[in-house]
Amino acid sequence: MLDPRIQAALNDQLHHELASAYLYLSMAAHFEAANLPGSAKWMRRQAREELAHAMRVFDFVNDRDGRVTLQALAQPPGQFASTVAVWEQALANEQNVSAVIHDGFELAHKAADHATMAMLQWFVTEQVEEEKTARMILEQVQQIGPTSSAMYFLDRHLGKDAEERKAD
Fold it and tell me: What is d(CA 36, CA 86) in angstroms, rounded to the nearest whole number?
């Protein structure tokens, strides 16, 4: 049985994972409207990944005889000031999710809940990669500028799946 404080923390993480998916879909819509289909595809992949993360938490809570409590999701922004602003928000979002995970891990550590710590360790490691990737893309977008033809090259690269990018 889950400690009620840990259950609440995991439900908070579940909420953040779902909100992230919702945000990334909004960003995908922004990129579609801006004729940046590769960036839109990248954001759609991120949204699916966030949903998978949410289900991982959902299943863990249920496996531990806990109770999943879904919270209302706020409407994400419908428009963004610029391509840079989108990537700034993507990085900020990943940093926020990391903080939620770290708080949950610390709580599980204090409660000596080894199963929750083990599950959250996967997320801790995953977030290092998520933040690194968002930071890298943001820095590239900042370097090339909003009107550069290099933006279209980056967009095409972002639209490729992981295997295609490895081949480049």
Answer: 12
- Two tokens, residue 28: 């995908």
Q: How far is CA 26 from CA 11, 131, 142, in A?
A: 23, 19, 21
Token pair 């840990």 is at which residue? 6
- The predicted model scores a pTM of 0.92
**What are the pLDDT tens digits along the chain (168 aa)?**
899 999 999 999 999 999 999 999 999 999 999 999 999 999 999 999 999 999 999 999 999 999 999 999 999 999 999 999 999 999 999 999 999 999 999 999 999 999 999 999 999 999 999 999 999 999 999 999 866 788 888 999 999 875 565 555
What's the full length of the chain, in residues?
Answer: 168
Q: What is the Cα–Cα distance from 92 to 111, expressed in whole angstroms?
A: 29
